[in-house]
Amino acid sequence: MSKAIRIHNHGGPEVLVLEDVDPGRPGRGEVLVRHTAIGVNFIDVYHRTGLYPAPNGLPFTPGGEAAGVVQEVGEGVDGLKPGDRVAYVVRLGTYAEQRVVAADQVVPIPDGVSDEQAAGMMLKGMTVEYLLRRTFRVKPGDTVLYHAAAGGVGLIFGQWANHLGATVIGTAGSPEKVALARDHGFHHVIDYRQQDFVQEVARITEGGKCDAVYDSVGKDTFAGSLDCLKRLGTFISFGQSSGPIPPFDIGILAQKGSLYATRPTLFSYNTTRAELEQSAKALFDVVLSGAVRIRINQRYALADAAQAHADLEARKTTGTTVLIP
Fold first, then answer.
1. Where does the record place the Enoyl reductase (ER) domain (predicted)?
2. Which CATH number fits domain 2-113+294-324: 3.40.50.11030, 3.90.180.10, 3.30.870.10, 3.30.230.10?
3. CATH H superfamily, domain 123-266
4. For 222-239, what is each residue's pLDDT tens digit?
């Protein structure tokens, strides 16, 4: 038996319960992975509260990214063997000491990247990859706005967008978070608790506004985000930490300059094995080059997952958080 966090009822952090779970043996095309580090993301909160229902209902194990060591391989698995370091992203199930996972969902961790870094950057980093390279292809000279710049995705985004030659504007909620974002590639950071971010974007860009806005906050920032876009700009909604965007008249996109709006997800962009490999390679390459640094700012024991969620929701965390089994 091994330990895993289980959710039997939707609710607050207290519903995260550590239990004995049999991870099972790998079947054909599968591997058994012993986790050494597990990434924590805001989407885990959405699953815990029921905002994003688990596909197979209750109970379930949350978590979408992890790194570890292959313990056993099933039949038909090529290119992986016991002892290999691997990382992966799935929809659910990583808050566990061990887990059986499809071999075609894992990627080897290259030398120079630690297990903790890999566990904390796969979901976040590949999210940044598709946002910057595929949803709206950022190029030198573009100006982009990113909300929640001091979060785990934000700190990767700022460095990578800077590396691509964009002018990167961020928003954050305290002087400490503003400073952290500036240290991770953002050229301008607006403290949204002290300043109106729409007015600040207009000032920073001298009225030119932004080519794209990346918004994982949702309800609280939607209207202002549209006002930060130039004509034919792109609004990208990829989360809703403040609540879902309310229904709106699509005609508003015409009124504000024939804007584009999209709601992408990582799993839509990385559906095939080829897409996964290309996304992971781009991420590992930019980290190994030194252009993007992955720093683990918070570590919790797996048994303390509830505290990790409480701190995340209270906005007490910055950057990357991992659970250690």
1. 11-323
2. 3.90.180.10
3. NAD(P)-binding Rossmann-like Domain (3.40.50.720)
4. 999 999 999 999 999 998
